Amino acid sequence: MMISYIFRSTILYSMIDLTIDFADVKFPNPFLVGSGPTSGNPQKIISAYRSGWGGVVLKTIGDSIVRKSVRPMYGAMRKNKELLAFENLELITEDPLEVWDKYLKIIKEEEIKIPIIASIMGGSDHTEWIKLAKWVEDRGASMIELNFGCPHGEPERKTGAFIGQHADLVYEYTKEVVSSVGIPVIVKLTPNVTDISEIAKAAENAGAKAVTAINTVNGIIGVDIEKAQPLPDVNGYSTYGGISGPAVKPIGLASVSKIYKSTKLQISGVGGIFDWTDAVEYFMMGAKTVQSVTYTMIRGFEFISEWKKELEEFMKRKQYTLEDMIGIASNKIKTYEFLEKVTKRRTSVDEEINNVRGEIYG
Ligand SMILES: Cc1cc2nc3c(=O)[nH]c(=O)nc-3n(C[C@H](O)[C@H](O)[C@H](O)COP(=O)(O)O)c2cc1C
Description:
Layout: H1 2-14, E1 20-22, E2 25-27, E3 31-33, H2 42-51, E4 55-57, E5 74-79, E6 82-88, H3 97-109, E7 116-120, H4 126-138, E8 143-147, H5 161-164, H6 167-178, E9 185-188, H7 196-205, E10 210-213, E11 217-219, E12 222-224, E13 229-231, E14 241-244, H8 249-262, E15 266-270, H9 276-285, E16 289-292, H10 294-299, H11 304-318, H12 322-325, H13 336-342, H14 349-361
Parallel strand pairs: 3-4, 3-16, 4-7, 7-8, 8-9, 9-10, 10-15, 15-16
Antiparallel strand pairs: 1-2, 5-6, 6-14, 11-14, 12-13
Bound molecules: flavin mononucleotide.
């Protein structure tokens, strides 16, 4: 027992391994740039690769639904200087397929040695999804992510989160794509559903290798009370947008945990990852890889070397491999009834409030 412990510690101490097999593809590390403006052209993708990211999910590519997003398309909710939440009204890429054809050629010529995951979104019929899936496969994508999660603009056209909110559609579209391509298919889920595990099960039954959770959460970032104007202010109007950043992390963690506990799918966790510790929380809830978008918009790509170093230090200290961490905290999530049996203290409500107040305000 002691010998095996010493042996294991020595191995772990001498070589921390950040490589991970995710949906049958090998990644040099579990940190991916998620789909968004920081993965929308070759310069950014090359820059992410050179900074040491483990993979990139391209900005969602489309055909018939490609159009310009409204402007302004971003809004922020802050407390002092800290960003609490971010809203976007950005649609999928504004670049047509001819432009992406050039982008993907550049990416190929640069010999980017990390997996490139092509995110795609077709319109409201299967054929376009299949066409796009084959199109990105022919141009060297390592995997495909089906964007069933965008909560604004696209649902009005019966795609994006509209598909992700109907388990039967998720099943149909996923099955069609899976049977048309030879590379692994990942389904990106919207948190704006009653039970995300039901939707994930539909993706699993249709042959998806993995899911990405979560896309943005539908919301309104704020109201300018002087003008009675919802934000972002698009020429005097606004619409329900996609919220990301720190505020959505709890929703992302719960979503990942629910999927982890109810399916055998591999999971890429995303939503409010602003630090390496946030990533570890996602691993412990059941994610095998993690993605970051809003933070890369604010900070660029370079910080990833620091995150990897910190993660390695943590793994050394705790003697964890990456695989060890996956789902270990999710296994401690039980029913309410279970918690009632293990509750030790019966404090008053006021005492509980005071405890929380103390934790927050010191
Ligand atoms: C400006 C912006 C644009 C986005 N565009 C896409 C997109 O094209 N496709 C997609 O699947 N997700 C898109 N997302 C969602 C992100 O990939 C991610 O799921 C979400 O922002 C939560 O992660 P974060 O808190 O790290 O940003 C976008 C997010 C932002 C902030």
